[in-house]
Amino acid sequence: MRLDDIGEFGLIERIRRSFGTSSKKAPIGIGDDAAALCVSPGQSLLATADMLVEGVHFDLSTTDLSSLGWKSAAVNLSDIAAMGGTPRSCLVALAIPRRITVEAITEFYRGLNTLLGKHHVALVGGDTCGSKKDLVISITMLGEVPRRQILTRSGARPGDLIYVTGALGDSAAGLELVRNADFGMQIGKSKKEQRRSAAIRKLINRHLRPVPRVEWGRKFALSGCVSAMIDVSDGLSSDLGHVCEQSGVGADIHGDWLPLSRSLKSAQGLSRDAVGYALSGGEDYELLFTVPPDRERKLLKLRIDATKIGVVTKGRALRLLNEQGRSRPLRASGYDHFRTAGRGTGR
Amino acid sequence: MRLDDIGEFGLIERIRRSFGTSSKKAPIGIGDDAAALCVSPGQSLLATADMLVEGVHFDLSTTDLSSLGWKSAAVNLSDIAAMGGTPRSCLVALAIPRRITVEAITEFYRGLNTLLGKHHVALVGGDTCGSKKDLVISITMLGEVPRRQILTRSGARPGDLIYVTGALGDSAAGLELVRNADFGMQIGKSKKEQRRSAAIRKLINRHLRPVPRVEWGRKFALSGCVSAMIDVSDGLSSDLGHVCEQSGVGADIHGDWLPLSRSLKSAQGLSRDAVGYALSGGEDYELLFTVPPDRERKLLKLRIDATKIGVVTKGRALRLLNEQGRSRPLRASGYDHFRTAGRGTGR
User: Fold this and answer.
1) Is B326 exposed, middle or buried, given 0-12, 13-18 or 19+ CB atoms closer than 10 A?
2) Which of B1, B6, B12, B32 to mutate to test the interface with A (most CBs of A within 10 A)?
3) Under 8 Å CB-to-CB from A291, ≥6 apart: which residues?
4) Contact state of B57 with A129 under an 8 Å Cβ cutoff
5) What pTM does this model have?
6) Of A56, A93, A145, Cβ closest to residue B49
7) Mean pLDDT in consecutive groups of 10 residues from the start of chain B, 347 residues
8) Which of B138, B148, B237, B333 is the best substitution to test chain A (most A C-beta atoms within 10 A)?
C-alpha cells in the first residue's frame, strides 16, 4: 500500500491504534499537540534524542525495516541506560520518501515496539512527514532516575578501574560482513561451515539488533559502585575519550584485556584484527564505566558480564598497553560525522 | 568554515559553549548521554517533536538560517502552547549535509536561541550527524502544565463558541510572495508603493518568523474558560477537523468572521483571495479553541486578541457559512505530507 492511499493522518491513526499506548504514567499520548506524562516525585527526568539517516547510519539494502525500528529504539534506550535511568516514553519523528510503503513503515514500528515493549516504554508521540529522498528517523527517549543515582561522564578519578560490559567489536565486524555480498557463500553444510555461518549471523545480528544494557545500567546506578559511565556508540577509544575529557583524567587500556566474542575471534574474511574492531568499531551499545578500587568487590557481587580493561590515570593521555607492558598513544578513532567520508554508520 | 575543519565534537562543543544552558531546572544539559531535568510536583510533563525537512518544509533559497532556527523553535513552542503549558527545555537533532558551513549552523542556533530565550527555555541536548543531501531538523520540546489545566483537542461540546487568536492566512500568503522572485520589484518609493512593500514584508515575516502564542495559551489554561484547543499548523479547516473528530462534534464557521490582517487584505499579486489563505493556508501558529457560552464573558475579560469564528454543532459536519447564512461543506484542505505533491511547506 502506498502512503498516499491513506495519507498522513491515516498513517498516524494506524500507528496510534497498533502501537500507541496511554497509561497512568502517560495519560495523553499520540493524537494531541503534545504528550502529557507523569514524573514520579524525587526523580529526575532524562531526555535524549538520536537521529538515524539513510545513507549515513543505515542502508536499506543491508537491513530490514523491523531491525531498523529495533535499532532506532536501542540506540536511544542505551543513552538512558548510560545515565543509570529507567526509560519510560518515546517520541518518533519520521521523514518518509514516497518509495517507502505503508507496510514497510508498519514493519519499522513493529520492530521498534518489540524492543520498547521489553522495557515497558510507551510510544507517546512524534511526527510524520514527507522527505524528498532519504528516510530520516529521529527518536526522543524520556526516562527517569532517582536524583542521587544519576551517572554522568564526569565522575572518573585517577586510580578508578575501567570496565566494559559484554564484548566489543562485534557490531562493526557485522557491518562489514553484511556489506560483503559474498558472506552468504560461506554458509555451507559441513559442521565447520555451520559453525562459521552461525558466527557470521551472530555478528550481523549484533549490528542489526543491538541489545541496550538497560537493566545493567540501572543496577550499576543502584549499587553506588560506579563513578562515571557512558555507552559505547562511537567506538571504545572515542567514548573513553569523552569520559576522560569530562572527568579531566587519562586512561591506560590493556589491549589484551579487551572482551572479544568467540564469533569475532573466529570470523573469517574480515579486513582488520579483532582488537581493531573492539577499539574503534562503534555501535556496540555496551556500557563503559569506572569503579573506585574500594568498590570493586561490590561490583563483582552484582554478577554482571563486565570485564576490567584498564585504569584511570592522572593527566590527559589515553594509552594502549600490550602484553609486554609497552604503551602507545590511543587515539580517538571512532566515527566523526563531519570528518569521515561516509562510513555508512554513525553512532 | 567547513564542518570537517572542526568535526562533529568540535561543533557540539561550540553549540554547548554558545547556546547550552544548565540551571536548577536542568542540572545536566548538553554533553552527556542524556539531559537530566526537574519537573515540579503536581505538574504533568509535556513532550512534543516536530521535524523540518529541506525541500519539504523549507527551501534555503527563501529563508535565512537564523529565521529557520527561529521557526523550528516556534512550531514546537506552539504545540506546548496549545496544551496550555509552559515550555521548559529543548533538544535539537540535526542531519547536516557537507555544503552547510559552521557559520550557517551557528546562525541557525542563534535564531533558535533568540526565541528560546524569550520563553526562558533551555537547550539541553540533541544530536548532530551527517546527511547525504538534505538538511533535516528535528526538535523535541519539553514543557510542564498543572495536571488539571491541560487543554486537549477532545473537550469541545455542541454549543461551544469557536475562537481563534490573531489573524489567519498571512503565513501562506507570505510563502507565496517569498517564492515569487518578482515581489522585490514592487518595493518602490512612492507612499503607496512603500505601504505595499511594508505589507509584503509583514506577510513574509509572518511566514519566516511565526510568533508562538505561549503566554496566551497559558492564560487560557489558567482561566478555565476553554474547553478544547489546538494550534493552527496544517490549516484552519484541517486543524478544526482534528478538534471535531476527537471531540465527536461538528462545526459551523462564518467565512466573513475570519480574522484577516490588513496586510493580507491589501497585498497584491496573490493567486487566491484572503479567505482562501485563512481557511487552508496553514503555518499560522495561532491558537484555535472552543469556549462554553457561559464562560465567554470570562474569556473577554482576558483581553486577548481573539476572534469568534463559529460554533460547535452536533453531528460531525464541518460547514462554512456565508453572509447570507447559506452553507457549504468545509473540507479539510490543509497540508497532507503524503497526498500533496510538494507544496514545499508542511506544518
Assistant:
1) exposed
2) B32
3) A160, A161, A163, A225, A226, A227, A299
4) yes
5) 0.90
6) A93
7) 76 71 61 72 88 94 95 96 94 92 91 95 88 94 91 95 98 92 53 80 95 98 96 94 94 97 91 93 96 97 97 95 92 71 39
8) B138
